[in-house]
Amino acid sequence: MSAGVSLFATTRDNGAVSEMHQRQILLDWLGVEGQRRLAESHAMVVGCGAIGGVVIEWLARAGVGQLTLVDRDIVETSNLHRQVLFTAQDAADRVPKAEAAARRVRSLATGTRVHACVEHCGPENAEELARGVHVIADGLDNMESRMVLNDLAVRDRIPFVHAAAVAMQGRSMAIVPGYACLRCAFPEMPAPGVLQTCDTAGVLGPVVGLAGSFAALQVLRLAAGREDLLLHGLWSADLETNRITTISVPRDPACTCCAQKKFEFLNAAVERTAHVCGRGAVQVLPPHGSGQSVNLSGIAERLSRHGHFDHHGDRLHGELVDAVNAEGQPYELTVFGDGRVIVGRCTDLEAAQSVADRFVGG
Ligand SMILES: [Zn+2]
Questions:
Q1: Over the stretch 16-30, which tens digit does the pLDDT of each residue have?
Q2: Is 198 a catalytic residue?
Q3: Are residues 95 and 215 in the same domain?
Q4: What pTM did the predictor assign?
Q5: Ligand 1: distance of its center to the CA of 26 in Å?
Q6: Per-residue pLDDT reduced to its tens digit, 226-271
Q7: 89 Cα to the center of ligand 1, angstroms
Q8: Residues with Cβ < 8 Å from 78, sequence gap 6 or more?
């Protein structure tokens, strides 16, 4: 009964956290060692809505040590039938999903460190967001962003668990080195508007719950060091007909991503402007991409002629007194050390780019 003795010892040593996980430590495949590895693991969930919410809930409860939660949207009432982390109050308060999800994790899993990132995950920041992460989970709602993560996962050999649900169908696929990638399964991107979405075809909570739970299981296998237990291929649940199947996905020897190592989505030219959801603000990237540090002191000096700006660490923040929006309110500017600019009190992308170029420059 050595397993029983070591389980007892661990439970006593680590107090409440181990007590919380007692029932899953009893599982042969996980055990004390698997639980220890979960506590040392760091998972990133990109998209904290329907599938992402289910994945986040299970990872937090299972004792994953660190969670990075990425989503730039805010909670809306129409999310609540399927997005299990959020409350009606979150929707009324228009709370960013990443922040509401982080609050939920902190309330139920005190042993998990959680980082909320209220931003879009795209080619410009995916690598930075994934720094130090052991496994990535897909809670996204579009193929293009998924392909960015697929490129990153293949290039940097980070395990990536894809998941999706729409109408009564759910699916999941684990992308790990040596096996097919998401692009092997979906080599061509559908034309815009071809794929069904939850907005056009609807979706039901239990369908999301099933697909999200299966994806969470795959993430937990990876985080616990049990890659040997992964299901390979495309797992699909059709709950219209009650059929759950796994389609084998062989590696495509001509795959642009995993065979030719052309990371087209990760290297894609980046749109310079994007709305910062829920904030009435627009982010403008520098003309040559972010990542190169800029001379904030020089910019601060230039901006001091146009308003009052405070220089804190690697950012400048203030109001432009002589540039106003359509309502006559002064624009707010935040300039970061990597050249990114957030133009506040602004929802017009072109106006934001023009303001950034005029006052910050390239
Ligand atoms: Zn591939």
A1: 557 999 999 999 999
A2: yes
A3: yes
A4: 0.74
A5: 37
A6: 999 999 999 999 999 999 999 999 999 999 999 999 999 998 866 7
A7: 42
A8: none
Query: 320 vs 97, 293, 297, 325, CA distance in Å?
Result: 30, 23, 17, 10
CATH assignment at residue 329: 3.30.310
Residues with CB in 5 Å of ion ligand 1? 181, 183-184, 255, 257-258
Q: What is the dihedral of CA 14, 16, 20, 22, to 10 degrees?
A: 50
CA of 185 to the centre of ligand 1 (A): 7
Whether residue 352 sits in one domain with residue 207 = no
Q: Which residues contact 243 (CB under 8 A, 6 or more apart)?
A: 237
> Cα(181) to centroid of ligand 1, in Å?
4
Decide: helix, strand or coil at residue 308.
strand
Q: 97 lies in a domain? A: yes
When pLDDT is averaged across residues 141-167 and rounded to a whole number, the result is 95
Residue 90 has pLDDT above 50, yes or no: yes
160-166 and 135-138 strand pairing: parallel
The Cβ-side half-sphere exposure at 11, using a 13 Å CA radius, reads 15
Q: How far is the CA of 249 from the centre of ligand 1 (A)?
A: 10
258 C-beta neighbours (distance < 10 Å), count: 24
Catalytic residue among 198, 257, 258, 346: 198
Which one is predicted more confidently, 335 or 97? 97
Would 56 be classed as within a structural domain?
Answer: yes
- With cut-offs at 50, 70 and 90, classify the pLDDT of residue 109: very high
**How far apart are alpha carbons 131 and 121 in whole angstroms?**
13
Q: Quickly count: other Cβ atoms within 10 Å of residue 286's Cβ.
A: 20
Whether the CB-CB separation of 73 and 96 falls below 8 Å is answered with: yes
Q: Is residue 14 part of a domain?
A: no
